[in-house]
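Person: Please work through this fold.
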Amino acid sequence: MQLTQQNPDIHAYLVSDEAIDHWHPLVQETADALWSTTGDAYSYAEAAFEFVRDTIPHSADSGDLRVAWRASDVLATRNGICHAKSHALIALLRAQGIPAALCYQRLTEDDGTVPLVHGLIALRLPGGARWSRLDPRGNKPGVDARFDLDRERLAFPVRPELGEIDYPELHAHPHPAVLKALRESADRPQLWQNLPTAL
């Protein structure tokens, strides 16, 4: 799939905003701690990915009912759904000067029902010629997402026969419909009702 930058300016994928608040002290501290154990962009990106994937449980897996959506809140509460974890990973990447974008998929149950928009990320290492998608959702039985910049190893490869979609756009900011759902949901059950079913 050909990924498409919504903004042609690569610097758009380094900025902070309300959700990707990489200026926040907790994001900065976490990024600095991870960088101190790596020392180069590739190793740092892998460490940041594994940190978010493995140390911040997906709230549907952990049973946590809270809805975190700002990167700093995700890191503080160690909680979030796919979209929130993507915000956290992008903030950590951007904090160290690595361009990162939000990506989306439309997924369904195994029978093609209950469509939902799933969030993941793409990054482009400094000097790199292309974007690579990664999914920090968190692994569980049947889900084995990995850090691989050459071959996608996502949590959920799409099944077009069920109406599932890989959206090719690279977003510099969270999609407005996703952000609205996250911000306006009092708890995770309400969030499931509010998340968009397509973009």
Notes: Helices lie at 25-36, 41-55, 59-62, 71-77, 82-95, 176-184, 188-194.
